[in-house]
Specification:
about 25% helix; 5 helices
Length: about 190
């Protein structure tokens, strides 16, 4: 295995076609991959086969969630990342995996949501723990989620579920609180 530079992080894909493959990304403040245990639980909740599902990884960072979705058959995975260095790593990892369904986009999350007209089946919402304007994000995100879509949220603390959404599943692992949300009444 090639040596990695001292200023990089690394995460491995835990399931699907890319299982055991390693992703390298810049080790920057705020870029923290979702732990293996949490990803395993999340993809047990979502189902191991995401065939035909479109996904949005809104704060892509390491890309762990989006690449897991692609590994499990998602038909399209849009990864939004505003940091240029991290975006380049996402592009390099997509090329290394030959993951043609992965589409890294350089943008701020709210700017992306404001100009996009697409609707996604699954949204991964895992922002840096210090930057949390959940109300604004959910307001902009709501039109981008399919009627029967799901939103995965990961935080460093507990929070109140946004209006119009209900908790389908939730758990905690160490300092990470995570939930899978669906629209209320669905």
């Amino acid at each position: 295995m090639p040596r990695r530079a001292a200023n990089t992080g690394e995460v491995r894909i835990i399931g699907g076609a890319f299982r055991r493959r390693r992703l390298v990304f810049p080790a920057l403040a705020g870029v923290r991959p979702t732990p293996d245990r949490v990803r395993e639980t999340l993809f047990n909740w979502l189902g191991q086969d995401l065939q035909g599902r479109s996904c949005l990884d809104l704060f892509a960072g390491s890309g762990a969630l989006g690449f897991e979705a692609a590994s499990r058959g998602a038909s399209r995975v849009v990864m939004v990342e505003r940091d240029r260095r991290v975006l380049e790593a996402l592009k390099a990892n997509a090329a290394m995996l030959a993951a043609s369904v992965v589409e890294p986009q350089g943008s701020d999350a709210l700017e992306f949501l404001g100009r996009s007209t697409e609707v996604f089946d699954i949204v991964f919402l895992d922002p840096p723990f210090v930057a949390a304007d959940w109300g604004e994000w959910f307001g902009a995100l709501a039109p981008r989620v399919a009627a029967d879509g799901q939103v995965y949220c990961e935080r460093g603390d507990t929070w109140e579920t946004p209006a119009g959404w209900q908790v389908h599943r939730e758990a905690r692992a160490g300092q990470v609180h995570y939930q899978l949300l669906r629209r209320a009444g669905v």
